[in-house]
Design goal:
Length: 225
């Protein structure tokens, strides 16, 4: 069986369009894998699927030749890994970014295979679901994740500051629960980091107010991990 040129064009354009829709969601966050990357992955996967299904029709006319059309398409799923790995960033121990974009590229490749195979509904509904996961569910994920993230108080002070006084103001408060703290010192300043499991906001506000009254302290800020 051979595809007419209009059907080939439709499948390729649809794959590129669906990839662009998902890529735009990543583009708004200024990721390296944006709209064009997703379009190329989806288009390439679609073309691979077309070739896998129909590119060997002349060979199959021979009665002594058998071919599994899924073998070529299967290589797309395994081969897309090198692109996904390129979008993953290891910022610091315990912090990784880009896993969602990498999984998005893998999904886009599957969407391209579906479009190339003529499964238009499957390709379309997968694109809609991918957008729901990447975009609409993001605020829900952030709200849930915030509850489990640990807050770290970072205090930056001049070398002349009395570190013992700063640490005692935090450690002597029974309303604060923290598993550990660390201090890094240099010629220009030293930095104290205190990680909290739970925080009494009223008491914490009072402590921070007292710390701000110490002139040797340069900056106090919160970070989440």
């Amino acid at each position: 069986m051979e595809l007419i040129w209009t059907e080939v064009t439709l499948r390729l354009i649809m794959a590129a369009g669906l990839g662009a829709i998902i890529g735009l969601e990543r583009e708004r966050k200024d990721w390296a894998a944006g709209m064009r990357t997703h379009m190329m992955v989806c288009l390439g996967a679609s073309l691979t699927m077309i070739v896998s299904c129909y590119g060997f029709s002349d060979v199959l006319n021979n009665d002594h030749v058998t071919l599994d059309p899924s073998r070529v398409a299967a290589q797309v799923i395994s081969g897309i890994g090198f692109l996904g790995a390129g979008t993953i960033l290891f910022l610091r121990p315990g912090t990784v970014r880009g896993l969602t974009t990498a999984s998005g590229l893998w999904t886009v490749a599957a969407i391209g295979l579906a479009a190339g195979g003529g499964m238009y509904y499957a390709a379309g509904i997968s694109t809609v679901l991918a957008l729901v996961i990447l975009w609409l569910l993001q605020p829900v994920q952030r709200r849930i994740a915030t509850r489990y993230k640990k807050k770290t108080l970072v205090i930056t002070a001049f070398p002349s500051a009395d570190s013992k006084v700063i640490i005692e103001k935090i450690m002597d408060n029974k309303f604060l629960d923290f598993p550990n703290f660390s201090m890094n010192k240099s010629d220009k300043h030293y930095e104290i980091q205190v990680q909290f499991n739970s925080i009494n906001k009223i008491k914490m506000a009072e402590i921070i107010k007292e710390l701000h009254s110490i002139e040797a302290i340069k900056k106090i800020e919160w970070i989440t991990t």
